[in-house]
Each structure stands twice: as structure tokens, then as C-alpha cells.
């Protein structure tokens, strides 16, 4: 009996040890662990992470600078107080950027030359609340120099030249307005009438007699240019009055070249209230129409203001007036502006 049991065990062991032959149609399948599908999941309907618990992205919170949108006037800078609130304090003149040349210098009404407008306004701020600070204003661009007195005859000529100059500035803007961003549509329509008028006096070195005669014959051509300049300056605030500060962008560059500028604008202030009203401005240029034009006057954008500033220099360099025209600014011959 034991012999038979031993014999059967030997046969079984031999059978288990024998090599197994693969089925003829069976191929070995190697599974890619990266594409392993979850058990019982439909790969078309389930996306990775669809049923995972949502997690919040933790972003680094950067504290907003309180001074970022806080505006301070010229001569002041923004600082944060103990309560993290913005406040304007006087700028230290020594913190102003270094100047590049004499053209950046300005002259104050105290007849003192400052390295730049930044240095001037910072100094004026430190005098805030004092009698000296109240009287101190930016007089003109460029180093202080001797400016001769304006004679009565010269004062009479000033508005004649300036009227014609303003008219030619607008015409030049109209001719260069290829991208329709220098003048508004209403402004362009007004200037177009002047530009296409055959009676228009072309830019040039005209005598005072010719300018006066043209103003009488073509009076309507000068109305809009005069009011346009007023609207250009009346911005802070828009109230129909020009303060000393609002007048500065026009006045400051002209004084070194046109010595009658100060006396002219002083004469415009008929009631001596330190402001030039629209009626006073119009009267200085011999214009009767005023209130109706002001209400319809579109505001100019910053880009136009920059272009206008450039045109001021170009006009003085002989593009609209001959170089060195008597009594009219010639910016390219001066070290006042770049």
C-alpha cells in the first residue's frame, strides 16, 4: 500500500514540474501602469480629479500701497502715516531729479533761478502759509534774465500777432490730424471752414497793419481760435476763469521771448481779482462772442496738449512764421526749451 502511494506522489510531482505550452492564440499582454483605469469607472464620463475634494488656491496677498492712487499737487509727495493712511507732504528739493541742461531751469517771481520746476515747487511748498510763499509763483521757463519794459505801442501789437498765431496752430493741427486724435469732430468742422476759406491770410511775416485789416475783414475766422485757447487752459477747475497757475503753460514759455506777455495778461484782468474771466479774455483779443462758444467748447485730451506744446516750438522755428520774426518767440534759437 505504501508503495502505491509513493508511486502516485512521484507521478504528480513530475507532472507539475513539466513546462506548460502557451495556447496557440494567446499573446502576452503588458499593461501600462500609467493608463490603468479605475475599477468600475467609465473612462469617457469620468475625468481625473472630478470627484476629488476641492482645494482652495492660496495666493500670496500683497498689501496695496495707499499712495498708489493718491494724487498730490506740485511740490508735494505722498507718504503713509502711522494709521497707514496716505498724506501729502512737502518734497525735499534735494530729492528732485538731476537736471540735464539750462533749458530745465525756471525763474520765479522772486527773480531767482531754480534748477528745475521740481526744485521750484518743492521750495514753494516749504514756504506754504507764509507771505513770501503766497506771493511766490513760477514766472517763466529758463534762467532769470533782464526783460525790457513793454511799450504801449508794443502792447497794442501783441493781440494782433497772437490771434494770427492761434489760428495757424489750429490749422496745422487740422492738417496733421491723420489719425483723428488731435481734434474732436466738432473742432475739425470749425477749423475746416477756416482752412478752406480762400480769403484766409496765410502764415507769414505780416505787418501789424495787414494783421489788423485781416481781422476786420475775416473776423469770424478768429473767434474759435481765441476761445479754443481759453478752453485749453481752463482745466483746473473748468469754471470759466483762468488762474495764474492755469495761465502758466502759455505764459511761462512766452515771457523770455515776448516781453509784453506779462503786461498783456495783467491788462486782461480788468477787475484786478487775479483771475481772467472768459469775457475779459475775449475782450483782450477784440472778440465779442464768448458764453455761447464756451458752452460748446469740447475739452482737449492730454495728447492734444502735448502736440500743441510741440507746435508752439515749431511755430517759433519758422514753420508758420519766419525764423526770428520780430516780437515773436523763436524757440529753436533759444536755450529755454529742448
UniProtKB/TrEMBL annotation:
Residues 1-17 form the signal peptide. SMART domains: FOLN (SM00274), KAZAL (SM00280). Keywords: Basement membrane, Calcium, Copper, Disulfide bond, Extracellular matrix, Glycoprotein, Metal-binding, Secreted, Signal. CDD domains: EFh_SPARC_SPARC, FSL_SPARC. Disulfide bonds join 67-78, 72-88, 90-125, 96-118, 107-144, 150-260, 268-284. Residues 89-146 form the Kazal-like domain. It is found in: Secreted, Extracellular space, Extracellular matrix, Basement membrane. The keyword Metal-binding applies. One of its GO terms (molecular function) is collagen binding. One of its GO terms (cellular component) is basement membrane. Appears to regulate cell growth through interactions with the extracellular matrix and cytokines. Binds calcium and copper, several types of collagen, albumin, thrombospondin, PDGF and cell membranes. There are two calcium binding sites; an acidic domain that binds 5 to 8 Ca(2+) with a low affinity and an EF-hand loop that binds a Ca(2+) ion with a high affinity. Belongs to the SPARC family. This is SPARC.
